[in-house]
Amino acid sequence: MPTAKVALRDAEDLLKGSDAIEHPHAGKELADAEELLSFVLGLEEWDEDLTLTHQELWSFKRLVARRARGAPPAYLTGRTTFRRLVIHVGPGAFVPRESSEFMAHQAVVRLRSRKHPVHLDLATGVGPVALAVASAIPRASVFGVDLYASPVRQAKDNARRLALPNATFFRGDLFRPLPADLRGSIDVVTVHPPYVGKREMRDLPDEIVRFEPEESLTDYSRDGLGLLGRVVEEAPRWLRPGGWLLVEVSPDRSRSVATVLRRGGFDDVRSTKGPVPVSRVVLGRA
Ligand SMILES: C[S@@+](CC[C@H](N)C(=O)[O-])C[C@H]1O[C@@H](n2cnc3c(N)ncnc32)[C@H](O)[C@@H]1O
Question: CB within 6 Å of ligand 1 — which residues?
Answer without folding.
Answer: 94, 96, 100, 122-125, 128-129, 145-148, 151, 173-174, 192-194, 215-216, 227
